Amino acid sequence: MTKMLASVTGPQEAQIALSEGVDIIDLKDPKAGALGAATILAITETVMLIAGRRPVSAVCGDLPMEPRTIRAKVEEIAATGVDYVKIGFFPSQAAADCARALKPLAGKAKLIAVLFADLDPDLSLLPVFAESGFGGVMLDTAKKGQGRLLDHMPLVDIDAFVRRAREAGLEVGLAGSLEAPDVPRLLTFGPDFLGFRGALCDASVRTDAISAEAVAQIRDLIPEERKAGSSASVDYRLLAARGYSPDAIDPTLGTDRIFVRDFVLPVEIGAYSFEHGHTQTVRFDVSADVLRVTDHPEDMRHVFSYDIIMDGIRAIVARGHVQLSETLAEQIATMVLEHPRVARVVVKVEKLELGPGGVGVEIERKRAKQQRATGPRGASGETQTVFAGGGRKGRHS
Fold first, then answer.
1. How confident is the model at residue 381 (pLDDT cuts 50, 70, 90)?
2. What's 261's domain CATH number?
3. Tell me, what DSSP letter sits at residue 224?
4. Which residues contact 175 (CB under 8 A, 6 or more apart)?
């Protein structure tokens, strides 16, 4: 499960974060830069306040890429008793040497490397971090106020970052001026934690104090694990409130239809030899029947974001060549139905360059538990339409 990391300035804000169920309490001084370091006193007092009830992390500051300087600061912060120390790695030929210099300290606290999406992050450092005893790596932004993480790095590249970090054996965190609508989009990649500061403050001003109400809103978007000793690893009562478990949703509320229409992308697709080695224009239309959780939707906690559909299509297309339109449609339908609130999805994939009109396939898929056995086709709850620009249509199972 993805955890929520909240950056706080000291004990007072840490108490708010603790009360609202934040998973990781992170110390920083937001007035001193992207990774501005809190004072040693603030860190020590916060560690004493939390008293092991949550993991505590602290950042080292925006330090020059000089091994001795970074090692001395990491050693100082690790001595406060924090669980994690976050170290910023800015573009530098000395970055790998800085990482290796910290290997002797890896046993004193879990080391988390921070790379910056807006500073051309060097992903070749990932195996170096792993070899140097780092526990994880985080993707953030350095220039606060100049865009969110998703403004500086497309979703397909974030997906690749998460996968490469995992392959190196590192925990993965994502941050960078994240806002509430970003949360469901990033959760699809399964990061170990998402980090927040500005979204937790009044008016989203990261240098202001955090607000309990703002913290609660973000907390409610991220499913929580049950505490040790409970009967399941996931608290499904909480997930139901956040739209993750249809079993606990009142069916009398009905469904809403979320759609993406005329979504056009270049796609490597086709079974013919002439279709290999280049892209062709494909249009996607997707509609999803989504179980409602309230009669009065007010914020991201109450809705299923259409961004998830578009992000998913982009990620699937980025994997490489697809032989059949049917294969692509099935992959998209499966992706959408992975979200438990989706009861039914219709996917249309239309190739636009093979004639005077569009050609392709349209499929309908339903969640298995809601299907009815009505014969050979109805038993699977599936229908499929093959279409051509001239209007000829045929159905098959």
1. low
2. 3.30.1130.10
3. P
4. 5, 138, 139, 140, 141, 149, 194, 195, 196, 197
Residues 293 and 215 placed together within one structural domain of the fold = no
Q: What is the DSSP letter of 95?
A: H
Residue with tokens 């360059």: 353
Q: Is 86 a catalytic residue?
A: yes
Give the active site residue among 28, 348, 351, 366. 28
Question: Which DSSP helix (H) or strand (E) runs through 287?
Answer: strand 280-291
- Cβ–Cβ under 8 Å, residues 18 and 25: yes
> How many angstroms separate the CA atoms of 291 and 240, rounded?
11
Phi, psi at residue 186, to the nearest 5°?
Answer: -80, -25
Q: Are 173 and 5 in contact (CB under 8 A)?
A: yes
SS3 77: helix
Q: What is the mean pLDDT of residues 157-179?
A: 95
My answer on whether 290 and 185 are in the same domain is no
Considering its fold, how many domains does the chain have in total? 2
Read off the pLDDT of each residue in 324-333 and give the average, rounded to a whole number.
94
Q: Is 28 a catalytic residue?
A: yes
Q: 233 lies in a domain? A: no
Residue 326: which domain range? 248-395
State the residue for tokens 């759609």: 259
DSSP string, 149-197: HHHHS-HHHHHHHHHHHHHTT-EEEE-SS--TTHHHHHHTT--SEEEES
Average pLDDT over residues 186-201: 93
Judge whether residue 192 has pLDDT over 90: yes
Strands across the sheet with 255-267, in order? 255-267, 280-291, 342-351, 359-366, 383-387, 393-395
The whole-angstrom separation of Cα 248 and Cα 261 is 30
Helix, strand or coil, per DSSP, at residue 214: helix
Predicted TM-score (pTM) above 0.90: no
Task: Establish if 239 belongs to a structural domain.
Answer: no
Identify the pLDDT of residue 75: 97
CA distance 224 to 245: 13
- 113, 122 in Cβ contact below 8 A? no
Residue 238 in domain? no
Which one of the listed residues 3, 86, 110, 366 is annotated catalytic? 86
Does residue 243 fall inside a structural domain?
no
Gap between the Cα atoms of 106 and 191, Å rounded: 22
Classify residue 370 by its DSSP letter: G
